[in-house]
Amino acid sequence: MSKPSEFLWYIPNDTKAGHRGDASDPDHNSLDTLTTQAKALEEHGWKGALIGTGWGRPDTFTLATALVARTTSFEPLIAVRPGYWKPANFASSAATLDHLSGGRVRVNVVSGPDELAAYGDQEGDQAQRYARTKEFMRLVRRLWTEENVTFNGEHFQVANSTVAPRLVPLGDRRHPKLYFGGASEAAERVSATEADVQLFWGEPLDGVRERIERLRTLGRALDRDLPPLEFGLRITTLVRDTTEQAWADAEAKVVKMAEGAAGSWQDHRHGIAVGQQRLLDLAAQGDVLDDNLYTAPGKFGGGGAGTTWLVGSAEDVARSLRKYEDLGISYFVLSDTPYLAEIKRQGTQLLPLLT
Predict the structure, then answer these.
(1) Residue 119: count of CB within 10 angstroms of its CB
(2) Distance between CA atoms of 47 and 192, rounded to whole angstroms?
(3) Torsions phi, psi of 21, nearest 5?
(4) Distance (Å, whole) CA 82 – CA 137
(5) CATH code where residue 330 lies
(6) CA 62 – CA 46 distance, rounded (Å)
(7) Is omega for the bond preceding 228 within 30 degrees of 0, making it cis?
(8) Is residue 306 domain-resident?
(9) Cα 282 to chain center, whole Å?
(10) Burial letters for 226-242: b for 16+ Cβ neighbours within 10 Å, e otherwise?
């Protein structure tokens, strides 16, 4: 029997508001505002939330720590970048927070473009970038599960390293799960061998099915020595009481985006990654794909998980998410704006249809 799917949200740790047609909030990034969101997630059936990362926004790990201290069951999916962190530093920090929180830490390893020079980092070409990511993930996992680790890689080295505190297994969980995204060939080779969970953005069902099959085949070809790779979906879900109201609101938001009234800020302004380009290219196939995958936002500034939206009533969106689940997706990271109102709405209307 397969385990039930898990549903997370998104905590926007940025000094700017979101970019899905919502207005700016001067208290958007205050600890009280974000704590209110985290507590609402606990109260409305969510497991936790992704907390994004990137230079020029508040530090992700610091925010995750603060929210863990103010909640009781909220699980942060903490985005981290090799190069911003060294493996041993990160392994120790994450082990400490995992210990203090009773095993609530999840990790999303990010390799996309960033303002590397601003924090003293540099990268070579794509092959070098993903080779470094592969070493980072392999070494962090070893530091969590082994003692007296010595590692001499091309990018990272440690000698006789033992992280404290030691992680305590919780059931079959030996360490925080390592989530990873990326659609390039280099990224998929890393995911197939090193990730616990591969995160997809909101592609049509056929695209996700094909990528799952390819990653499973690749894992076998590369002699993956970890438990089977699991899969997740990061997507915007626009839910309203009726199908008609959902589409009216979705189209109105896109009109604002087209006028520039909503801003065009997005995390992918440093260059377009392969996965992002795949989403942008979907608009050429039509404004609506599958049953209710809305591609128009990507034409007008929507990026990342805001490029495509699942639109409809709670029943419509639940039906679509079930189809992804049937393909093998078991982790869902959903969001829409305004964040707090949507945490409550979707927690009340959508989650009961899925859990």
Answers:
(1) 11
(2) 25
(3) 90, 10
(4) 9
(5) 3.20.20.30
(6) 21
(7) no
(8) no
(9) 20
(10) eeebbbbbbbbbbbbee
288 — pLDDT class (breaks 50, 70, 90): very high
Q: Mean pLDDT across the stretch 70-94?
A: 97
- Residue 94 lies inside a defined structural domain of this protein: yes
Phi and psi at residue 264, to the nearest 5°: -125, 20
How many whole angstroms separate alpha carbon 293 and alpha carbon 336? Answer: 14
Name the amino acid, one letter, at 82: P
Dihedral sign computed on CA atoms, order 286, 287, 293, 298: positive
Q: For the residues of 271-294, what is the DSSP string, one character each?
A: ---HHHHHHHHGGGG-SEETTTEE
Domain limits for position 199: 6-244+311-353
The answer, as to whether pTM is greater than 0.90, is: yes
Q: Which amino acid is at 226?
A: L
Those residues whose C-beta lies under 8 Å from the C-beta of residue 307, and which sit 6 or more positions away, are: 201, 202, 276, 279, 280, 282, 295, 297, 298
pLDDT score of 110 more than 70: yes
User: Per the domain annotation, does 209 fall within a domain?
Assistant: yes
Smallest Cα–Cα separation from 290: which of 201, 213, 351, 207?
207
Q: How many residues does the chain have?
A: 355
Alpha-carbon radius of gyration of the chain: 19
Looking up tokens 């305590």 gives 168
Q: At what angle do helices 87-101 and 126-145 cross, to 10 degrees?
A: 50
In a domain, 281, yes or no: no
Tell me the per-residue pLDDT of 162-172, one tens digit each, with 9 for 90 and over: 999 999 999 99
Tally of domains in the chain: 1
